[in-house]
Design a protein that fits this description.
Elements lengths: L1 E5 L5 H11 L6 E7 L5 H8 L4 E3 L8 H14 L4 E4 L8 H6 L4 E5 L11 H7 L4 E8 L9 E8 L6 H24 L3 E4 L2 E4 L2 E2 L4 E2 L8
Parallel strand pairs: 1-2, 1-4, 2-3, 4-5, 7-11
Antiparallel strand pairs: 5-6, 6-7, 8-9, 9-10
Helix pairs in contact: 1-6
Length: about 220
């Protein structure tokens, strides 16, 4: 499977994907990494791994639609089977979402549908929820609203602040995302309208990441 990665930050989830491939847990070719931030660490990780890396800063374009058109035309040029948004922090317009419908996934630091958008860890702490976590979902026009593939749970501790909680969630993200991508790469997982199908069967709930780092 040919994979393109979109990332805005340090690239730790990209590194997790590359580590999974190196360990034989993911059968995929990474054909491009794309960012809205020229200084993003993800681009350096990609270059070090021999993956073409591209930065398209939004300020170089007239508006979001123009930036989306340029970015996703560049993505289309590498002919990906799957686009993985791994810490890509910009909203994606409807036209780009429709162009790659069923072929774009995102990892989000909450147990969706809870805490869509930003500042998820602090919002979870403010609500005093006992369990927080991360979700991988297909990208649709709704913000963090596409069909959820799988989730990883993290217990919230009494002494947590947003930074400590975020670190533990991120560690689980590094297991969750490669596990989801591996199922897609193996042809076992796909979007089915507003749901997810595993081995041809529509899921009635998101898969869960177990302590064995497998999805159940």
């Amino acid at each position: 499977m040919r994979i393109a990665v979109l990332a805005s930050g340090r690239g730790s989830n990209l590194r997790a994907l590359l580590d999974a491939r190196a360990a034989g847990r993911l059968d995929a070719a990474f054909v491009g990494t794309f960012s809205d931030r020229p200084g993003a660490g993800a681009l350096e990780i990609a270059r070090a791994a021999g993956i073409p890396a591209h930065a398209l800063p939004p300020r170089a374009y007239a508006d979001r639609a123009a930036h989306d058109e340029a970015l996703f035309s560049a993505v289309a040029d590498v002919q990906p089977d799957l686009i993985v948004c791994a810490g890509y922090m910009r909203l994606i317009g409807d036209a780009a979402v429709a162009r790659f419908a069923g072929r774009m996934i995102n990892i989000h630091p909450s147990l969706l549908p809870a805490y869509r958008g930003l500042h998820t860890h602090q919002r979870a702490l403010d609500d005093r929820v006992p369990v927080h976590g991360a979700s991988v979902h297909y990208v649709t026009a709704a913000l963090d609203g596409g069909p959820v593939i799988a989730q990883a749970e993290v217990a919230v501790r009494a002494d947590d602040d947003a930074e400590r909680l975020a670190a533990r969630v991120l560690a689980r993200e590094h297991r969750l995302l490669p596990a989801c991508v591996a199922l897609i790469a193996d042809g076992r997982l796909r979007q089915l309208d507003d749901a997810v199908a595993l081995d041809g069967t529509r899921l009635t709930r998101p898969l869960r990441l177990g302590d064995d780092d497998r999805l159940h």
